[in-house]
Design brief:
Elements lengths: L4 E6 L2 E6 L10 H13 L6 E6 L4 E3 L4 H5 L5 H12 L5 E5 L2 E3 L1 H7 L3 E5 L3 E3 L11 H11 L1 H8 L4 E3 H6 L5 E3 L1 H16 L3 H15 L5 H7 L1
Parallel strand pairs: 2-3, 3-5, 4-6, 5-7, 6-8, 7-10
Antiparallel strand pairs: 1-2, 8-9
Helix pairs in contact: 1-3, 5-6
Amino acid sequence: MSATILFEQHQGVARISFNRADKHNALGHQELAGIEAALDSLDETARVVILTSQSGRTFCAGADLQQINNGELSGERFQAMTNRIAALPIPTLCVINGNIFGGGVELAVSCDFRVAADDVMMRVPAAAIGLCYPIDGIERLVKRLGVALAKRILVAAEEFSAADMKSLGILAWTAPASELMLSASQFAEQLASQAPLAVRAMLQVIDQVEQGQLDRSEADRLV
């Protein structure tokens, strides 16, 4: 790992925490390497992965734009990380305990479940600053949130409160900041207690349906 990415695994629950509050938990080369190392460290007992931030008013500001602008980091590297999280064969839970911007939104949407503190807000400002969001990210937001909502997030660059996100189905639930991690941990423990083979099979079938590539014969074999 690294000082800016913290990792722990206990009784089937793995937790990856962003620890770069001075940079709004933006993910640069070092942070992406830390996340990848954490994912590499998952063992056969892992049943669920929690993504959250250790501290700061911002949960995650996405890829480090300074590093992208100076050529140290490519958008493809950030995309590869979100793709890997989306493809994990075990459930993923994003615990949004601060405001969430840009690629941080895509990172959250890459997870299977999302919960947030009830005082946070979300915005993807790409259109407002003259950028087209990466194609893979657009595709993920459209598939997981729907065309109309993806347009509001990306094209209109709307700002959403936690209540908005919950009502639109982006979040499973919200909680006061002081109670968020406890409720998220309880939900993670519930996920971890489910039969692992059944969970993996259903996640795989759901992913095939989402991609429009359901192989029914393979699905029958899985279930």
